[in-house]
Amino acid sequence: MGILAAGHGGVHPSAFGDPRDPGRLGKHARLRVRRGKTKPGCAVSETDSFIDEVTEEVRRDRLFAMFRKYGWIGGLVVALIVGGTAFNEWQKARAQVASEAFGDAVLAALASDDATARVSGLKAISTDAGTGRSAVLGFLTAAEAEAAGDKESAVAALQAVAADASLPDLYRQLAQLKLITVAGDAMDPAERDSTLQLLATPGAPFRALAIEQQALVLLDAGKTDEAAAMLTALTEDADATPALVSRVGQILMVLGKPVPEATPQAVQPQGD
What's this model's pTM, rounded to 2 decimal places? Predict the structure, then answer.
C-alpha cells in the first residue's frame, strides 16, 4: 500500500509517472513527438494543430465538392475557346485556299495570247457574289473585252459590278465611272449625266475624275467656255491628283485657255 499517499486518502500523482513523460501522452501525441511536430506537455499547441488539420480537411472537401458541382462550367468554357479557335483557323485556311484557286484560274485565263480566249477564260471563272474577287474579275473581263474590241461584253461586265449591291460602294462607283468611258455615245445621255452627278458629289471617292468627265461631256456638246471653267476649277481641287491636273492642263492648252500657274504638271505630263 506504499502507493497510497499518507494523509490524503487517495492516489499520489507520482503513481502515474511524471506528467512530462512522453509515455503518458496519447498515441496521437506520441506519434507527433516521434515526428518532431510537438513537444511533450504542449497540450494547447496540440489542440490548435488538430483543429487546423480538421479545418484544412473541411476546406479541401468543400473545394472538391465545388469542383464536382461546377467543374463542368470550366470544361465547357475551355471547349468553347478551343472550338472557336479551331473554327477560326479553318475559316482562314478555307479563304486562303479559295484565294489561291482564284488567282491560279485568273493567271491561266490570261496566259493565252488570244484576247478573245482570255475573255472566254475569265468569263468561265466562278466567284461568290459580293466578294472582292467578283469585282476584280469583272474589271479584268471588261478590260480584256475592250482590248479585244468586244464593247458589248465589256459593258456587260461593268454593269454586273455596278449593279451588285452586296459590293462596297468603292467598287460599284468605279465600275459606273468606267462604264461611262467604255460605253461612250452608246450610253443614254440622261443616265450618263445622272450617274456623273452622283459620282461628283463631295466626298465621293472618284469625284475629281467624274468632274473631268462632266467637262468632256460639255465639250462634246459645244459648251467650251463652261467646260474650260470647270477644268480650271479642277486644277485647284484638293481631290485632283497630279496626273489629273497635268491632263486637265493639256486640255486647257489645246482649247487655247489660260493654264493656272499652279499646274506645272501640264508642261511635263504624268501618267495615271
Answer: 0.62
